[in-house]
Amino acid sequence: MVLHEATDDPGCLEYLVGLEKRCGIRVDVNYPKRGGWTALHTAASKGNTVVIALLLHAGACATATTKDGHTPVHLASEHHHTAVVIQLVSAAPRTALQPTNNGRLPIHIAARQGDLATVRWFLQQSVDAAEHGFGEPGNQPNDATIALSTLAKPATWSVAELVRAEDKAGTDVLKDGIVSGSLSLLQYLVGTTAKRSTLSAQLHRQETSTGKLPIHVAALTGNVAILQYLHQNGIIDEADGNAKDTWDEWTPLCYAARYGHLAAIEYLIHQCHADKHIADRHQRTPCDIAKLWRQPDDIVHALAP
């Protein structure tokens, strides 16, 4: 436990991991605290590359998992620590494809956080990045302690393995990017012909657990800029405005009604030709759903038959 606390102080940590060499007292750098967190997990969540380097040199395991299956790379991805992601994946390249218990890869977590730098790095380091349109130069963290442009060991993953990977709910990087609300990330993922071809299988794929299309995901977040981008770039087609999911047969308008997104409601009705009369599995219209979740009068009025 002391080792975990020492991740805030590189000098203290260096002293602790050096005890065995100096006086024969062994400190287990992989000893987990509650939840399975090792000191490397703690350091990864804080983003200190100096501490990460000390722990790795002392034998810390980059592939160690918490009780939920999170590696230090997952935690660094969650907290926008791109330099630490690079450092850890360089030490153990297979962590790029190591899933959590619910099937989430580090790139999924970075995309959900809208972390363009980390998502871009994973895709650019893929063995076939250039041929899929992800090989262009991009801004990377400036950290003199680690090599940022390439892996210390060769990348062991392809673009397809990252882009097509789904978690246990059927969510992929594209849908995570939509949820994040980051237009710049979405533009990066689908912004060129080559990328569009790579993502073609995902653009209209439904989530396996609930059957949501990208338009459903965008509607529930209420981000009109994302809806516009998906619509204008053909990711939302004419039939999607009234597409039903496979859970409660909700249309995109039902999701926008549930979460009270007036601007999204208006966009769906006027631009995507969403029909506010279509009922779900329980015979509830979007207006009924808005009333059920006690949305303001202006939302109920916009959805009124």
UniProtKB/TrEMBL annotation:
Lineage: Eukaryota, Fungi, Fungi incertae sedis, Zoopagomycota, Kickxellomycotina
InterPro entries listed in its UniProt record: Ank_Repeat/CDKN_Inhibitor, Ankyrin_rpt, Ankyrin_rpt-contain_sf
Source species, domain of life: Eukaryota
ANK repeats mapped onto the chain: 35-67, 102-128, 210-234
SMART domains for the chain: ANK
Residues annotated as signal peptide: none
UniProt entry keywords in alphabetical sequence: ANK repeat, Repeat
One of the record's GO cellular component terms: nucleus
Keyword Repeat: yes
Protein name: Ankyrin repeat-containing domain protein
